[in-house]
Input
Amino acid sequence: MNLHRFANPARFMRLSSALLPWCGAGAAALIGIGLYLALFIAPPDYQQGEAVRIMFVHVPAAWMASLVYALMALASAIALIWRHPLADIAALSAAPLGAGFTLLCLVTGSLWGERMWGTWWVWDARLTSVLVLFFLYLGYLALVNAFDEPGRGARAGAILALVGIVNLPIIKFSVDWWNTLHQPASVFRLGGPTIDASMLWPLAIMVLGFMLFFATLLLVRMRTTLIEAKIRVLLLSEIERHAAASPRQAVAS
Amino acid sequence: MPAGRHTMLPAAGFAGIDLACRRGERLVFAGLSFSLAAGGALVLTGPNGSGKSSLLRLMAGLGRPEAGVLSWDGAPVGEDPPAHRARLHFIGHQEAVKPLLSVAENLAFWAGMRGGGDVGQALARFRLAAFAGSPCRLLSAGQRRRLALARLLASPAPLWLLDEPATGLDSDALDDLQAAIAAQREAGGFVVLSTHTELPMAGAATLCLSDFAARPA
Amino acid sequence: MSEAIARFLAMGGYAAYVWPAYGLTLCVLGGLLWWSLASYRRSRRTLERLQGGREP
Amino acid sequence: MSAFRLLVQRDLRLALRQGGDAAMVVGFFVLATILFPFGVGPEPELLARIAAGILWVTALLAALLSLERLFQADWEDGSLEALSLMPLPLEAQVLAKCLAHWLVTGLPLSATAPLLALLLQLDAAGYKVLVASLLLGTPTLSLIGAVGAALSLGARRGGVLLSLLMLPLYIPVLIFGVGAIEASIGGFGVGPHLLLLGALLAGALPLAPLAAAAALRQALE
Output
């Protein structure tokens, strides 16, 4: 009764410690194989030559960037509606990972742009949307860490994540519309109009590898947050134990 | 959570069953119950940080209790928040007074937000009639405190929740407060207040928060 | 043999783009991995110190 | 008088008595716009080409600046806590405060925009649509901004945080606002752009107060 439900979520800790080795091994294996296929086996693109290999990191990163934000919004909805503390922790733990994937997507995208267009940044519709998504992540991370009381940041972040997920398609639509208005000519296909089978496999494996990698780190970060919460509770109760014991004697004597 | 919660709620009056409240990671109090009949008063006592303000805020509907239920005339309060808000006054530590507006404008605003009421009489009963026209930035802390309490009289509400109303009041103001509370109770209203100073009230129940402090882990 | 490696590293003339992309991927993913594991270990150690290493 | 109008009236009275609010917002708008010719040079054709964009970006930033105080003043003196316990639902109160904020910022901005457009040599065909797009767009800015103001209440460096949260969400309003002006200058139909701005407003009207009220309740817990 005394400890808040999430202070000792034995079930989640047991479950995650069982899952962790498998996720970790799976992620390492998939990314390893994916990298090998991407760098050595996949044929160069007839138009873009070897540079197409950037796609094998850029596309999974782009996919993870939006997938993680969607998961954060889902977790935030669960946290707000059912006040489930684990959902809050999941969203908080996922945010930095999502931001990392988005940054990776942006930089690999600009590398790709540099090769194709000779400039480090191309206001392509998709890249611009990813840039905006990156700022949504930064906004979330800034908001969550802007409060002294930990619970307050998580709850405010949950609302922001929901507001963000509602706005994301609108932003995407307006950026696409704005892009076609100002840059009608270039069809800037990152992955090329069609991806033939020989490239599809490495891509699929890399995407799966990234997802497992994300799952592993998410579980690790959630366990860390839970342990930190438990530490706070232990420190608090120690203070209370001292406070409860010492002053009364002082007053009494 | 006790089964058949509704059956256990007292048919009339304002009550709380097995209330628990959390502040961040800390459970402030647990298993706290109280029951108040019409015309009744409840005085909350206890050291700082024992949860007097937290309990009053829970009663007002600012935030949800960790456990337990509050009931009004047998119906859980959480089921109809607007109705609960309509029936209560909550005067917290801050006075909610705008320095730029005059005393009368401030009180007229708060009364108007609750559907109107007699501002003049409320100011008079807290000896603020003379300041009606002056902007609140000229008021002293005690006078601002009296203006906050005048909100209680400006528009009627059966339930009064007062968080340390007596702080900063001089002896006259204390008498006005006690008179107002007595009148409220005679009219069949409920008064719950937390206080550190001695505030004698006939037939008032007291509740010491430290009796319900959650055991440290 | 070394000629094949050199050709591979040249990446058909796009070495300056492909390798930074993969290098950055390893940095970002590696960084996230290290940061998460480091904070996890640190909090475990503090917890064990606080609890005198009783329950996990 | 209904509680809604009472709250709007109180906020307007507070804003006008302080005197500064509307003047400061318009002052920032004028000054920020005047900076551009010093930056990009006074050539009329260049200025005319980017005038719509400059006006909309500076108007957007001006609206954003004044949003931090939307709930801050009431939060500090306990009014927000008392307001949340009033019979009028918090969502309606957020709407009332957004209306008062818009009347003090969005309206004056839309009124002064044509004067500044003169300085930036905006094409004659653009003036009517400039005002129309601002009148349609600035309420959405106030509504979405209210969510940011509520979320960053009581946060460290709330002002900077508010801009970081809100600027990405302002992009659609900016794109369609400027798009409308450039369409009218280019002789194309302005209908779709203004309709899209209206759609954004129609979407923000119910959803923003919902999100802002939820954020305020979290802050008051």
Notes: Chain C has a mean pLDDT of 84. The helical segments of chain C are 2-10, 15-51.
